[in-house]
Amino acid sequence: MSELEASLYALYWNNNISVAVITMISYEYILQLEKEVKFVWERQRSVMTYLYLAVRYFGISVVMFSATWGGLVYIPEAVSYGVFLFMQWGFSAYSCLTKVILIWRLYALYNQSKPILYVLMGLLIPIVALYIAVDVFLWSRPSAISIQEIAITSNIKYCTAFFHVGPMLAIYTSIPVLCYDVLLVVLAITLLVKHLKERKELRMKPNTYIVLIVRYHVIYFVLNLAVQIFSAILWANLSTEVMNVILLFSNTAPFIIVPRLIISIWETHANDSCVHVSTTFEDCVCWTSPPPLEQHEMEFCIDPDNISCV
Q: Which controlled-vocabulary keywords does the entry list (predicted)?
């Protein structure tokens, strides 16, 4: 394959993947818009609603820049490098936001334990610093990565990135992030195991909301693990097909799944009627009416609204 044919082939793959990304993100946004209006815009603001708005709209902006960059829309080389940096720093910021969401969920599950909150937020600081260091050292240095304009014809031009560093550095720097993700999911699973044991001793059904939130923690963990692995292997010398398939996953899955999981908890809770609210915090613990066959059992759930104590 000649150099011109290779450039055309890469542009063909890039544009097809970009159209697929824009279509999937737009379709997902339309699907969730009615629920977003109901559970976000028509209700009192809380910490989780602000986190939702951040991951939803900041995520969409990052994805759209990423989809249009690289050939779908012509961006001059001088501007293209700045857009590329925004994309990469944006992906890191989005990942940090998802970790804050997990921390806030754990804080609610552990009865708003301040030590849990302070420890997890304290451990998050070096993770954020690591993200910044990686973005500066790997993505922001011309010696590590460069942007070059490819001219196929006088009217067909696009910019692409060239990696000058192997994948090992990206792999090493992803290890602390993965360890932090493991800590978050272990805390969630530990709470679930303890809860299941207590309910079994009392011969009561497990609380639906604890099971639901822990399940979402596991999904977050698997998603973050996949993103970290894919981000690392992007620095390897991959074929055009493999790289674009990885980019399709990285540019869609996190930005669809994270907001959807937040909305799904609110939607699940919307059908419950709280008779007692014990806290003013977001995702507060409340007591709901028990199922008809278990009137002796008072289930607690995770309330997605910022409700005042009674």
A: Membrane, Transmembrane, Transmembrane helix
